[in-house]
Structures are given as structure tokens and as C-alpha cells.
From TrEMBL:
Residues 347-430 form the STAS domain. Substrate binds at residues 77, 126, 170, 177, 201, 253, 271. NCBIfam families: Gln_ase. It comes from Bradyrhizobium manausense. This is Glutaminase.
Length: 615
């Protein structure tokens, strides 16, 4: 039987697997009716127990949503990790860590108890969260809540507001939190302004969010503090990593041990019915369903997290990244030179010293283990004079990886090896991470394009072994590879139909799509050939031809720009065709030379493909 093709509308209606999974969770767990809506804050008891929304945010900024994902509810205790991270950045780790512990308490979230040092056990229980808010209040005074609201908004990627009714209800019934506040004051954890601190705390708990908001907020935690939707670095990686640590051990209160054992994703719940889960370097999950279990966690939300973790095996301690996958290609310039078309003298030098330049193309995350593997791989072959590390496929660099890179570069410097980095924009976070550790090193150069980096390295080898690269040298037609084998008479006749053209630096000589009506033989200077999207195909110096594809194509397929002041012999195609008819032997020779040049380019391209597929 022949399968019938899918109708186009079926394709457009199809859903990504993760969205289908969330739909399945929504449909399956909607039938769950266990639990009770929180009522110790009267306004929370008004929540519709049927509400159920799920959202998942990826680290590339895509957000999946199903069910009641846009229904607002109050953030409650889910504010705690974000306020803790804010305090770390605003006040410094020493001050915050000196006032609040990081050990799990084993008690309910609203326990009126401190640790042996009379400090809160951790910032995820009410005592620790109130202390955290108190530290910010001591520093910012009446601006404290606005600082907190703005930080929560930056995590969510939009302006967040307060549910005044919940705030009022929480304030009126918050005697247990007042008891905690005065306990903290008695032990000098917070200052005399207990009422003001608690007012800020009640307000921060009454901030309105949605399941979508908390998914994005969780993804920001998972993304080292960078909001994947807005691209903003909200807080420092230090504050984020410490916050995730406490969420891992204490985020789910007296259910935290069971949670991390079975689900294995740092998470935080709130009595408003929300749960957020942040899987580092992977995703953020947010869910909303008001019915809570005996621990104060959303019953349906727990089930969603359990299902996600088990279905996709996402336990954070079950990672299988292989450092060997960090290298996508490893070669020397003999196997894959730059796109610079060089003269014979330069080619001879580079052929004799092809192992002097080693190129290692990297991919994925540059972690400590990945950098360690690369350094050992580099040491496993003879020492190069220059090593190029291409990072354009690297998605991120950990601080540990960056520090180990710097230490490896220091060792290379001691061995007189020059390091060239390519593929990293200077305005990027990756550049900042690398430069934190490598800024003082004198043996490191950088170029954004890999081909530019390889070309620079080749130039250094040419210079070191007695060669010269004179862009101002003037060449004649007899030195053109395309015209190799032509007699003096044939070259004289060809010269008679040439016009010498002069181009200023940056001038556009050939434009994609224009008629291919002339050939050019570069007489002096340098030009580069690029595709319309900016990809460079070649750099040509004096003695090279360009526009030669006019012999087999009717329209230009690339642009040509002058890299510097340049001159070229221009030959109109109609005159060149007449020359070929008058000199059939020369015509045959030119076409053979063209075929050889194209074959050489194809060999280089195939070699690059082989390198990328065999490493």
C-alpha cells in the first residue's frame, strides 16, 4: 500500500514532543482531586481548585504553555530563592551568609525555630526569608520592596504587580510570621524595624505571577542568571549557583530529601499553588494548581515534576556528558589551509612546515573536563608553533573551564606556542568569561572568523621561514596560474585587450547577480571574494585571477571587494572569446588550467568535510 501524503494543514497543526508531553500531563493529572486549597490566609482560599496550568521554558528562549498558564496567582514562598539571590548580589555573600544558614531544617516552612547559632536554618524557610528581606530593608530602607519587585520582574521578563487583597489578608493573619520576626530581632538577625520588614515580606509574597512567568524565572536560574527570553543578565552566576544549591537541599521544606532523591531537580513551591523547577543548563518548569498536600506543595504540580523527571530521565545527578565530544575537528594547515590563494613561494614554505599550525574546532560547553581533554589531546602530538582554538560552535564556557583554559595557555606560552582564539565576539558573555582569566597573557591573539585566524597564522610561518608577503608588489600576466603555459606571443596579444583598472580600499569590484562579462587578473594589492551572506570564499593577492567563472557562468555568484588599494588587468569577455578563437592552443590551455584550479578548490573543500566527519 502506498502511504498517502499528509495534508499541509496536518503539518502546521503538529506539536513538538515536549508540548505533547505537557498536554498529556494536563489531561492525565486534571483528574487528580486530592489536597486542599490553602486557607490560613483567607484570600488564598478563594482560588478555584480546578485551575491547572503548566509551562516549560527552554534556555534558547522558547516557552511552552498548556492549560491555565496565564491565570495570575500570588508567588508566595517561590519569591524566596530570588530574594536570597538578590541579597547575595546587593549586600555581598559575607553579610548574607553570616546571618542565614544553608542547612536543611527538616521542619515545616513556618517553623518558629533557629539553628544552634540562633540564625535561620536556610533562606527557604520563613525565618530565613524574613531575615533576607530584613537585610535588604536595612540597606535600602523604603526602597526595599521596589528593589525586590524589580528583581522579580527582571527574572520574569515583564513588570509584575501586587495583589493588594492577598497582601492585606496576609498582613492581617500573619501573626506567626510576626513571632518569627521578633525572634530574629531578639537574636540580632534583623534590626528594630520588624513591622516594616514584615510589610515588605508580605508584599513580596503577594506579587502576582503566572505559570508562564515562573517557568521563565526558573529558566533564568537554570541559565546562570541570564533570562533566556530577554537575554538580560539578571544576577551574577555566583548568586544563582548558591541559590540553586539551597533550593536543592531545602526548597521543598520537610519533603526536600524525598524530592531530590526521586525527582532530582532544584525546585521551590508556594502555598498559592505554584511550583517552579530549574534544571541547570537545561530548562525551567512552572506549574499552577491550588490544591496542596500536607507539606504545602501543589499535588498536581508534584505529579508534573515527577512525570517530567522520570519520562526524560532528568535527574540532575544522572548526567552523561562526554568530554571527548567537545572536539569536532583537529587538523593542521596541511590538511585544511585558509582560503587565501597564495603564491608558489608561500605555498612551498607552508607545505614544508604544515604541522607548525594546529587548528582545534570545539563544540558545546567548555567545562573543566572538556578543556582538560583538549589539553591532553593537544599534548599528544608534536608541539606546534601556533595553535588556533575555534569556539564559534561553543554554546557556553564555565568559569572552571575558562580558568583551566588560562592555565593551559600559560603553559603554552612557556613553550613559545602562540594561541589564537576565533569564533568569539568581543561583546559577548563568553568573551568576558575567557578574558577574566586570559587578559594578562601575552601569547594570545583573537580573530572572529576562523579563516582569518588561520590566514594570520600562515602569514607568521611564512615570515619565520624567510618568506615575504608584499601586497604592493606588481605582477604581470605571465605570473598568472590561469595563464600558465601560454607563449610570449599569446601573452602579448592578450595584454593588448587588457585595461588596467585601479581600485581603492573597500571598493566593490564585482556584484552578485551582475552579468559575468569580464575576467580580472590581479596585478597588485589584495581582494576578497564573499557570498551575499558575507561568508568569505577566498582572499587573493597579486598574481591571482578573479571573475574567471565568467568562462562557464553567465551571471556573478559572489561579490569581490578590494582589501587595500589594488590594480587589475580587466579583459572584457567578448574580447577574450575572440582571443580564444584566434589562439585555439591557448584557449585549450586556459580551460585546462581552470579545471585544475577548480579541482584544487574541491579537494580542499572535501578535505574539510572529511575532517569534520571523521574526528
Amino acid at each position: 500500500m502506498i502511504a498517502q501524503p499528509l495534508h499541509a494543514s496536518a503539518w502546521t497543526r503538529s506539536k513538538p514532543p515536549l508540548l505533547r508531553f505537557l498536554d498529556t500531563c494536563l489531561n492525565e493529572f486534571s483528574a487528580e482531586t486530592a489536597g486542599h486549597v490553602a486557607d490560613y490566609i483567607p484570600e488564598l482560599s478563594k482560588a478555584d481548585p480546578a485551575y491547572f496550568g503548566i509551562s516549560l521554558a527552554t534556555l534558547d528562549g522558547h516557552v511552552y504553555e498548556v492549560g491555565d498558564s496565564r491565570v495570575p496567582f500570588t508567588i508566595q514562598s517561590m519569591s524566596k530563592p530570588f530574594v536570597f539571590a538578590l541579597a547575595l548580589d546587593l549586600l555581598g555573600a559575607g553579610k548574607v551568609e553570616g546571618a542565614i544558614g544553608v542547612e536543611p531544617s527538616g521542619d515545616p516552612f513556618n517553623s518558629i525555630r533557629l539553628n544552634a547559632e540562633n540564625h535561620p536554618f536556610n533562606p527557604m524557610v520563613n525565618a530565613g526569608a524574613i531575615a533576607c528581606t530584613g537585610l535588604i530593608y536595612d540597606s535600602k530602607g523604603s526602597e526595599a520592596f521596589e528593589q525586590i519587585r524589580l528583581a522579580l520582574s527582571r527574572f520574569a521578563g515583564r513588570e509584575l504587580a501586587v495583589d493588594e487583597a492577598v497582601y492585606s489578608s496576609e498582613s492581617q493573619t500573619g501573626d506567626r510570621n510576626r513571632a518569627i520576626g521578633y525572634l530574629l530581632k531578639t537574636n540580632a538577625v534583623i534590626s528594630d524595624n520588624v513591622a516594616e520588614v514584615l510589610d515588605v515580606y508580605f508584599r513580596q509574597c503577594a506579587v502576582l505571577v503566572t505559570a508562564r512567568d515562573i517557568a521563565v524565572m526558573a529558566a533564568t536560574l537554570a541559565n546562570r542568571g541570564v533570562n533566556p527570553v530577554t537575554g538580560e543578565q539578571v544576577l551574577t552566576p555566583y548568586a544563582i549557583s548558591r541559590t540553586l544549591s539551597v533550593m536543592t537541599s531545602s526548597g521543598m521544606y520537610d519533603y526536600a530529601g524525598e524530592w531530590i532523591y526521586r525527582i532530582g531537580i532544584p525546585a521551590k513551591s508556594g502555598v498559592g499553588g505554584g511550583i517552579l523547577a530549574a534544571l541547570p543548563a537545561r530548562l525551567g518548569l512552572g506549574s499552577y494548581s491550588p490544591k496542596l498536600d500536607k507539606h504545602g506543595n501543589s499535588v498536581r504540580g508534584i505529579k508534573v515534576c515527577e512525570a517530567l523527571s522520570s519520562h526524560y530521565d532528568l535527574h540532575m545527578l544522572n548526567r552523561s556528558d562526554d568530554a571527548r565530544n567537545a572536539v569536532i575537528a583537529d587538523y593542521d594547515i596541511g590538511k585544511s589551509p585558509s582560503r587565501r590563494v597564495r603564491r608558489q613561494q608561500e605555498r612551498d614554505i607552508l607545505a614544508a612546515h604544515e604541522q607548525a599550525v594546529r587548528v582545534i574546532e570545539l563544540v558545546g560547553v567548555l567545562s573543566l573536563s572538556a578543556v582538560d581533554y583538549v589539553s591532553r589531546r593537544l599534548a599528544g602530538r608534536p608541539r606546534p608553533q601556533i595553535v588556533v582554538f575555534d569556539l564559534h560552535r561553543v554554546t557556553s564556557t564555565t568559569r572552571a573551564g575558562a580558568r583551566l583554559i588560562a592555565e593551559a595557555f600559560e603553559e603554552l606560552a612557556a613553550l613559545d606556542v602562540t594561541v589564537v582564539i576565533s569564533g568569539v565576539r568581543r561583546a559577548s558573555r563568553e568573551w568576558d568569561t575567557l578574558r577574566e582569566w586570559t587578559a594578562e597573557l601575552k601569547n594570545v591573539r583573537d580573530f572572529y572568523l576562523l579563516d582569518t585566524a588561520i590566514e594570520w597564522a600562515e602569514d607568521q610561518i611564512v615570515y619565520r621561514y624567510g618568506g615575504s608577503i608584499d601586497f604592493h608588489e606588481t605582477t604581470e600576466l605571465s605570473e598568472q596560474p590561469l595563464l600558465d603555459g601560454l607563449s610570449a606571443e599569446e601573452l602579448t596579444d592578450l595584454a593588448s585587450i587588457c585595461t588596467i583598472r585601479t581600485y581603492q580600499s573597500g571598493a566593490k569590484i564585482v556584484t552578485t547577480g551582475d552579468p559575468a562579462d569580464a575576467l580580472f587578473f590581479l596585478r597588485s594589492g589584495a581582494v576578497h571574494v564573499t557570498l551575499p551572506d558575507g561568508v568569505r570564499l577566498a582572499t587573493l593577492t597579486a598574481g591571482m585571477a578573479f571573475g574567471e567563472m565568467a568562462l562557464i557562468e553567465t551571471a556573478r555568484t559572489a561579490d569581490v571587494f578590494a582589501d587595500m588599494a589594488a590594480t587589475a588587468f580587466e579583459v572584457p569577455l567578448k574580447d577574450f572569446e575572440r582571443f580564444r578563437r584566434q589562439h585555439p592552443r591557448a584557449s585549450e590551455r586556459i580551460m585546462r588550467n581552470l579545471a585544475q584550479l577548480l579541482a584544487d578548490r574541491l579537494i580542499v573543500a572535501n578535505t574539510k568535510v572529511d575532517i569534520l566527519t571523521s574526528t
